[in-house]
Amino acid sequence: MELKTSSVAERLGVSPKTIQRWAKKYNVPCRKNEFGHYVFDAEAIALLEQIKFEQSATVEPYTRREQKEKPQDTFSADALFQTYVEPQLEQFTSRLQQIEHKLDQKADEVVSVQLLQHRQELEELASYLRALEQRIDHLEEKMNKSQQASTEEKGKQKPKRRGLRHIMGLFV
Known about the structure:
Blueprint: E1 3-4, H1 5-12, H2 16-25, E2 31-32, E3 38-40, H3 42-55, H4 64-68, H5 77-156, H6 162-171
Antiparallel strand pairs: 1-3, 2-3
């Protein structure tokens, strides 16, 4: 004989939650079905009866029928809303608007900081480019001067006198 938690609870006269608590607390040997619900065999039920006796649980008997027969509250949802929610609603809206305003300010501050950082990075890159341009200009000037010097040296060299050697080479 295997019973579920609610059946065992009715049999022992306690709530299903109490059965679940006892099963966990006292490591009652039971298994769980595919839905994760406890399933108790005869041995586990006997152990739970002993636990109840030892606990001297004086909880009123629990049945599902008693729970269903409880009188319904006569308050409607509108009445509950007007009583509990509506007085707090304006305060909540005000608080929400303040939080949104602070969030917008924080976002603006973050964007401003990022823009300043980007501007600084751009200025650093621009100064680096200017330094590179100056260095390139300086190197071009050096190169032009060295080319001019080499062309002037070529122009200043004496022309070789090949005629005399050439003639002498004929006689040797």
